[in-house]
Amino acid sequence: MAQPGALDAMLRGADQPFVVRGLAADWPLVRAAQMSSAEARRYLLNHAVERPFMVSVAAPESDGRLFYDDTMQMNFRTSRARLPTIFQKMDEGEAMEQSPAIYLASIDVHEHFRGLHDANHVDLGNRDALASIWIGTKTRIAAHNDFPDNLAVCAAGRRRFTVLPPDQFRNLYLGPVDNTPAGRAISMVDFEQPDFAAHPRFQEALCHAQVAELEPGDAIFVPSMWWHHVEGLAPFNVLVNYWWRDTPRYLGQPQDALNHAMMTIRDLPEKDRKVWRDLFDHYVFDADENVTAHIPEHARSVLNPLTPETAGRLRAFLLRTLSR
């Protein structure tokens, strides 16, 4: 278990994944889960707010893999239900030889539970973190990445994380960017049964993969943009995770810029794309004092490092141009 202040020191500047064993061993939720999955569910129900929860359900033949079907539609259906109803289905499923996969993904802890965060949380100092809870039966979630840093705590059951560096995206055979299970492009490779004939470069990705299995109370840090494939290995699994970014939120989401570039630049003639590539390098990737040295300082506006005010001005300008 990390000593007070030790976790903060480990997180500061970390650019590689790491595991902290027993970080949340003293959580009441972890202790309840160690008694039984039923006890963990009772504990969660005692803190749940009376409101619908978003839940995804996949047929038993999915084998817990929440993914695309043969038509590239999702192989699961999503609906809203009260937590007692969802947990009753999980209770019933534990007694069945084959049962549906049931998954509650990225549920906001503060909005859906009362007092759960107070009794079960990691002290992240002055980091402005979003706390989410993930509850499910045995599941396999395809490799994807997230922009924020991520500290994920196994609170019940067991989790297996397979993590890969950001530069391995070409070897993961990413799927669509506008038709995704949860908003991020995912690897089309089945990590459990990879088809190396269809995905030969995945063998190179595996050379760079790191695998960690988490028991209740263990935590893993996944740096921003690292790819991670996540499996819930027990009949009932709970994960609590924290997302934060070291840059201000007013800077927006880089994925939005990538999507817009695909719409506006990718299909231009090659000579035009080269001009825009040079402009992106000048204003974004290689930006230095030469971009603004010839402009009076008071007139540089968004060419200077952004502030909340200038970022808001740029956002408003983009909204006006996108709405034309």
Explain this structure.
- The protein is α+β, with helices and mostly antiparallel strands.
- Helix content is 29%, strand content 23%.
- The chain is built from ten helices and 13 strands.
- Helix 2 (28-35) runs antiparallel to helix 3 (37-47).
- It has helices spanning 6-11, 28-35, 37-47, 83-94, 109-112, 116-119, 202-207, 254-264, 270-285, 308-322, and strands spanning 18-20, 53-58, 65-66, 76-81, 101-108, 130-136, 139-144, 149-156, 159-164, 210-214, 219-222, 227-232, 237-244.
- The strands form two sheets. Strands 1-11-8-13-6-5-2-4 form an eight-stranded antiparallel beta sheet. Strands 3-7-12-9-10 form a five-stranded mixed beta sheet, with no helix packed on it.
- The mean pLDDT is 96.
- It folds into two domains: 6-246, Sandwich (Jelly Rolls), CATH 2.60.120; 250-322, no CATH class.
Blueprint of the fold:
Blueprint: H1 6-11, E1 18-20, H2 28-35, H3 37-47, E2 53-58, E3 65-66, E4 76-81, H4 83-94, E5 101-108, H5 109-112, H6 116-119, E6 130-136, E7 139-144, E8 149-156, E9 159-164, H7 202-207, E10 210-214, E11 219-222, E12 227-232, E13 237-244, H8 254-264, H9 270-285, H10 308-322
Helix pairs in contact: 2-3
Organism: Croceicoccus naphthovorans
Domain JmjC: 93-259
Protein name: Cupin
Quick overview of this protein structure:
The protein is of the alpha+beta class and 324 residues long.
